[in-house]
Amino acid sequence: METKQLIITIITILLILGLYYLTLLPRKKQEKEIKKMQDDLKKGDKVITYTGLSGVIEDVLEDRIILKTNPDGIKLSIEKWAIAGLDDRTIEK
Question: Does pTM top 0.85 for this prediction?
Fold first, then answer.
């Protein structure tokens, strides 16, 4: 009976480890890539925020950026963590 419980315990541990590697590690890798992108932002980059705002970076501060929106050119101060990614779309006039 003890051998059966040991096998069940080992299988349970292996399943938990498997789920960890299949779910948490890819997410951590993605978060690391996003953080690197946010740290590498520079003036002139086209970006999009998590809320859907898009524009061109006018200035990069320590933990914020100044974003010039399209099409009206309104300037906003946005936290770097709010940048979801670079925006490769073109704006048609």
Answer: no
